């Protein structure tokens, strides 16, 4: 077993936040956590079907990166663990939940399900079931932003794209090809590695010859950073720096967020491969509890304010479930709709 890595890049003490920003970050993380908990409940009650991969424990990454961008304007590309990315990008919880129930009111019209969330309105480019599949899509979005801005002279196209993927993906060819192209063309893209130590059942240190993924950026001449993915302010600070670089035309950044999923690979995974000690060590670093403590210590919020947010979010999640349950199934007559582009 390799030695545990430390987090040398940024710590929350150096990443200050205003009260308004802090409450927004806390709300976003709570939304993600409560949503995923409700998904687990619905799945085990037989209300939700198929493969469902939850994000519990990794909320600081989604919130830290996407809230450092312009939700609804900048592009986000996800993986099969995409619910919380969609929520951070602004997709309403009711439309995400309806999609997981396969309903026509879902953000993908009930045709995508858990692993294929999409919303053109919110610039969510999709969740992708195959690892690495979304990175070239994100690269294309970044290219069109640069092309429209520089070649066509439209200054309004200053969007930045964030591509999220796991540690296992960084051993795939698409990862290297896209880093190379992004560096060559100085594309406005953030490559965000959510290194939760496990690629399904394969431990990260057993699967890659270079375990410090951020160092792979140097091969392509682009900045690479390692950050504590359990610290939302640390993630946010490095994301803000990378977004500013991208928007200024200075090219891509590779960010490796060291994080951990609190549940198994999917809700069908008995999670027997990870040791109890490992799981307990990471649970003790829960990013939401960590940030809540920071907010209170810095006099940015008190416990009653945080509890009020939690109550508000729980009501939103409950309403999302009722909306999903009451929504119609997709019309069989529209089986072939949305397959091809329509005028």
Walkthrough of the structure:
The chain has 343 residues and is an alpha/beta fold. It has one domain (12-326): Thiamin diphosphate (ThDP)-binding fold, Pyr/PP domains (Rossmann fold, 3-Layer(aba) Sandwich), CATH 3.40.50. It is built from eleven helices and seven strands. It has helices at residues 19-44, 59-66, 83-88, 93-100, 134-151, 173-185, 204-207, 232-247, 276-283, 287-297, 303-326, and strands spanning 75-77, 161-166, 189-195, 198-199, 202-203, 224-228, 253-258. Strands 1-2-3-7-6 form a five-stranded parallel beta sheet, sandwiched between helices. Strands 4-5 form a two-stranded antiparallel ribbon. Strand 6 (224-228), helix 8 and strand 7 form a beta-alpha-beta unit. Helix 1 packs antiparallel against helix 10 (287-297), helix 4 (93-100) crosses helix 11 (303-326) and helix 5 (134-151) packs parallel to helix 6. It is globular, with a radius of gyration of 19 Å.
* CATH fold label: Rossmann fold
Shape: globular
Count of individual domains? 1
In whole angstroms, the N-to-C terminal distance is 56 Å
Q: Radius of gyration, rounded?
A: 19 Å
Number of strands: 7
Low-confidence stretches: 7-14
CATH class group:
Alpha Beta
Give the second-level CATH assignment, the architecture: 3-Layer(aba) Sandwich
So, the CATH homologous superfamily? Thiamin diphosphate (ThDP)-binding fold, Pyr/PP domains
Sum up the structure in keywords.
single chain; 343 residues; alpha/beta; Rossmann fold; five-stranded parallel beta sheet; two-stranded antiparallel ribbon; 11 helices; 7 strands; 41% helix
């Amino acid at each position: 077993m390799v030695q545990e890595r430390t987090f040398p890049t940024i710590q929350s003490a150096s990443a200050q936040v205003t009260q308004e920003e802090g409450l927004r970050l806390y709300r976003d993380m709570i939304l993600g956590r409560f949503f995923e908990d409700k998904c687990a409940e619905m799945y085990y009650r037989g209300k939700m079907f198929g493969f469902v991969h939850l994000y519990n424990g990794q909320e600081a990454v989604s919130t830290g990166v996407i809230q450092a961008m312009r939700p609804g304007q900048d592009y986000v590309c996800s993986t099969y663990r995409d619910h919380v990315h969609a929520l951070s990008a602004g997709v309403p919880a009711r439309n995400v939940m309806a999609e997981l129930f396969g309903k026509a009111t879902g953000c993908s019209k009930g045709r995508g399900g858990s692993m294929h969330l999409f919303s053109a309105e919110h610039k969510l480019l999709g969740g992708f079931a195959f690892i690495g599949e979304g990175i070239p899509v994100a690269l294309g979005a970044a290219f069109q932003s640069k092309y429209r801005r520089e070649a066509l002279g439209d200054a309004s196209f200053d969007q930045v794209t964030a591509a999220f993927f796991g540690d296992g993906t960084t051993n795939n060819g698409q990862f290297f090809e896209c880093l190379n192209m992004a560096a060559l063309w100085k594309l406005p893209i953030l490559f965000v590695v959510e290194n939760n130590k496990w690629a399904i059942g394969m431990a990260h240190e057993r699967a890659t010859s270079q375990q410090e993924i951020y160092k792979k950026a140097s091969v392509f001449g682009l900045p690479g950073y390692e950050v504590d993915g359990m610290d939302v302010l640390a993630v946010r600070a490095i994301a803000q720096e990378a977004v500013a670089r991208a928007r200024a035309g200075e090219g891509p950044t590779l960010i490796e967020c060291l994080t951990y999923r609190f549940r198994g690979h999917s809700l069908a995974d008995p999670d027997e491969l990870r040791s109890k000690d490992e799981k307990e060590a990471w649970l003790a670093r829960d990013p939401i509890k960590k940030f809540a403590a920071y907010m209170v210590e810095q006099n940015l919020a008190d416990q009653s304010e945080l509890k009020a947010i939690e109550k508000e979010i729980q009501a939103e999640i409950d309403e999302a479930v009722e909306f999903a349950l009451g929504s119609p199934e997709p019309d069989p007559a529209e089986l072939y709709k949305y397959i091809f582009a329509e005028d």
